[in-house]
Specification:
3-stranded antiparallel beta sheet; 2 domains; alpha+beta
């Protein structure tokens, strides 16, 4: 059975304008176009394709990605991998927004006169995480990206990446000696060679969020110290970082600097 575009749009619960756009980009073409009148008709079974399209669209996939998926007619296993990837991307975006939210709330409290709230810094519990890591002494900070690539190549196909980060064990950039541990956070442990796999322990940390193109560690540390000035904590251990994308993709535009804290048991 063939359906004119108006009827097809009503049954599919999308606008005619959207159907014309999907046709223009090669996402969903009508089964027949009348050469004389230009009237478009769709086969009834194309409603299934439209339904899949709308489901994938609702899950946040781009139209280009949806076009590739529908052309390939993926198996249930591949669809599961696709949805796992999408879930991880959404989780990373949520993590980024939660980090930003904590920083915003700390600044609001500071502006409202809460002297215990340092501007731009917040004390929070950082959960434990399974990580695949590479630790190297490198001459410059920019080499971190190549360490992420090396870890990615070592991970098996079934690895589910939950985020990226680093532990800075010792930094002497003037001597070109930076003891850096690149971290790829995983949803669950996997079997992997050539990189270390372990559980990064949970900690309470003073956290500062800033754009990734800023590298003012001194100001971040000062904000972290101010955040715990009236609490029974002191900074202890190497500084950690988490990298986020506010757009939910692989481009890191936000960094959360985490200064692990030790409970001194003594109030200042």
């Amino acid at each position: 059975m063939m359906l004119r575009i108006g009827e097809f749009s009503r049954r599919g619960r999308v606008s005619v304008k959207a159907l014309r756009h999907y046709e223009a980009i090669g996402l969903l073409k009508p089964a027949h176009v009348d050469a004389a009148t230009g009237y478009r008709s769709y086969a009834a079974d194309q409603l299934d394709d439209l339904h899949r399209l709308m489901v994938l669209r609702a899950l946040g996939l781009s139209l280009e990605r949806i076009r590739q998926v529908l052309q390939d007619d993926p198996s249930p296993e591949r669809m599961r991998r696709l949805l796992d990837e999408r879930r991880a991307a959404v989780a990373r975006r949520i993590d980024a927004e939660q980090a930003q939210l904590a920083a915003i709330e700390a600044r609001i409290r500071h502006l409202e006169g809460d002297r215990d709230a340092a501007p731009g810094a917040v004390v929070r519990d950082v959960p434990a995480a399974f990580v695949a890591s590479l630790r190297r002494v490198v001459p410059e900070y920019g080499i971190l990206d190549s360490l992420f690539d090396e870890i990615a190549r070592a991970l098996p196909d079934n690895a589910r990446i939950a985020g990226h980060g680093a532990v800075w064990h010792h930094c002497a950039p003037h001597k070109r000696q930076i003891d850096c541990e690149a971290l790829v956070l995983l949803e669950r442990p996997v079997s992997v060679r050539n990189v270390r796999l372990y559980q990064l322990p949970a900690c309470r940390a003073a956290c500062v969020v800033h754009p990734s193109d800023e590298e003012d560690f001194a100001s971040a540390r000062a904000a972290a110290k101010a955040a715990v000035a009236n609490q029974p904590f002191e900074i202890e251990g190497p500084m950690r970082e988490r990298y986020f994308s506010s757009a939910g993709d692989s481009r890191f535009d936000l960094t959360e600097i985490q200064f692990p804290l030790r409970n001194t048991g003594v109030s200042p």
